[in-house]
């Protein structure tokens, strides 16, 4: 785990200009100290908790904008903490930390309502980058709640119900496909580079693996454009763009 402060990126702040609040829950003091340092370096307000009961209490009092939550805690586990937090009616994005790296653990955590998952050992840069993405996405969702439907030509995307239709025909998308399409539809007729898409949709560095963007663009095309006039276009050497057909 890196003990150095992450590279400073453009700050993520709330719409009202107030500090982003992050709750860090882990029973390893050295780890929470490092995370606190890194997150405060981002300009965020950070509170920590060392066990599950304290975490639930802190979440109710502190009302964080994001929670970093270890699954293995000395009293109740992180999944139980999350269930109690969700029972209070909050949809605060949660980034799980765990030493476990099995598929079953990933599924259990994300099914319980977590938004992302990092296995130990991890770099501080990765945790900060993933948190930045979670906070940015949740802030965008809140900011656009008054008008949740995006429309480009005969394609519509409802950010509240996660329903997508083209010419009235429902289209089933995975969570990642939905995020990719949403980013494209928020920027109609604008060329988006692979780097921009990686940063916005995946929210952390894939080590330059821009091929993942090409792969998901191909998935989207099969669902959005198959048998229809295409809406998703490749701009050679620049990126991708969505625009109304015709």
From TrEMBL:
Residues 147-244 bind DNA. Residues 147-244 form the OmpR/PhoB-type domain. Residues 21-135 form the Response regulatory domain. Transmembrane segments: none annotated. Keywords: DNA-binding, Phosphoprotein. It comes from the Bacteria. The modification 4-aspartylphosphate is found at residue 70. InterPro entries: CheY-like_superfamily, OmpR/PhoB-type_DNA-bd, Sig_transdc_resp-reg_C-effctor, Sig_transdc_resp-reg_receiver, WalR-like, WH-like_DNA-bd_sf. Pfam families: Response_reg (PF00072), Trans_reg_C (PF00486). PANTHER family: REGULATOR OF RPOS, TRANSCRIPTIONAL REGULATORY PROTEIN TCRX-RELATED. This is Response regulator transcription factor. It comes from Agromyces salentinus.
């Amino acid at each position: 785990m890196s003990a150095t402060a992450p590279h400073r990126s453009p700050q993520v702040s709330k719409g009202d200009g107030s500090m982003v609040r992050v709750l860090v829950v882990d029973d390893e003091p050295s780890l929470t100290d490092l995370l606190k340092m890194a997150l405060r370096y981002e300009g965020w307000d950070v509170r920590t908790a060392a066990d599950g009961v304290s975490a639930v209490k802190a979440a109710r009092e502190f009302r964080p904008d994001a929670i970093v939550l270890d699954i293995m805690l000395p009293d109740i586990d992180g999944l139980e903490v999350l269930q109690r937090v969700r029972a209070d009616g909050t949809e605060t994005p949660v980034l799980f930390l765990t030493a476990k790296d099995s598929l079953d653990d990933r599924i259990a955590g994300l099914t319980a309502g977590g938004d992302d998952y990092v296995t130990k050992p991890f770099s501080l840069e990765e945790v900060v980058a993933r948190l930045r993405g979670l906070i940015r996405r949740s802030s965008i969702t809140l900011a656009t709640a008054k008008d949740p439907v995006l429309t480009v030509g005969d394609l519509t995307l409802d950010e509240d119900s996660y329903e997508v239709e083209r010419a009235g025909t429902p289209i089933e998308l995975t969570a990642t496909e939905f995020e990719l399409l949403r980013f494209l539809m928020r920027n109609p007729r604008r060329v988006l580079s692979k780097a921009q898409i990686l940063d916005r949709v995946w929210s952390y560095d894939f080590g330059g693996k821009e091929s993942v963007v090409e792969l998901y663009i191909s998935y989207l095309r099969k669902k959005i454009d198959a048998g229809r006039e295409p809406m998703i276009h490749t701009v050679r050497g620049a990126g991708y763009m969505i625009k109304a057909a015709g």
